[in-house]
Amino acid sequence: MLMPVTHRTLLLNASLEPLCVVSVHRAVTLVMSGKASILETDGRELHSERTSLPLPLVLCLTRYVHVPMRKAVAPTRRTVLQRDNHRCAYCGGGADTVDHVLPRSRGGRHEWTNVVAACSRCNHRKADRLLHEIGWELPFVPRAPRGLAALMAGSHVDEPTWSAYLVA
Ligand SMILES: [Zn+2]
Which UniProt keywords apply (predicted)? Predict the structure, then answer.
């Protein structure tokens, strides 16, 4: 079967809660084995010698699976900017860098609770100083993203048909 390799499918639990993002290969395997059914397609079809299948955008499992914990998403430039909506924590402007609140040069660790999105101007101005040394404050307490935020931060795609299923 010919498959668009970059295509990704949103997989929902039988309860319609989002579970994860899977490759099209995995999506087709789930559908062919009867483990999932297709909720949304984009109109394109996958063809093999014996069968054809709508290209799945959203799948739902036919049986509910219990998921104890989501895989943790690591703080990277992309995931931190996504968590903070690309807003600079210090001036509220557009952010394109990640700032370590407690600078790494002063023992700050690279973890969710010590990173915020920042514009390059604020990042440069702050440099390796502490917030109280320059009279700045954080508008929120940085935390690791949870639930749907973690799911979206961990996926590289922003598929419009998914949004209806990702409402928290
Ligand atoms: Zn800024």
Answer: Endonuclease, Hydrolase, Nuclease
Q: For the chain, what is the domain count?
A: 2
- Encoded tokens for 29: 């395997």
Tell me the pLDDT tens digit for each residue of 29-39.
999 999 999 99
Distance from the CA of 150 to the center of ligand 1, in angstroms?
24
* Ligand 1 center to 92 CA (angstroms): 6
CA 23 to chain centroid, in Å, comes to: 15
Distance CA 151, CA 145 (A): 9
pTM above 0.90, yes or no: no
The two tokens of residue 137 are 């404050």
Q: Which residue intervals of 33-165 are DSSP H helices?
A: 77-83, 120-126, 131-134, 147-154
Instruction: Count other Cβ atoms within 10 Å, centred on residue 37.
Output: 13
Regarding whether 97 and 55 lie in a shared domain, the answer is no
Distance of CA 73 from the midpoint of ligand 1 (Å): 25
Q: Which CATH number do you get for residue 105?
A: 1.10.30.50
Backbone angles phi, psi at 151, to 5 degrees: -60, -45
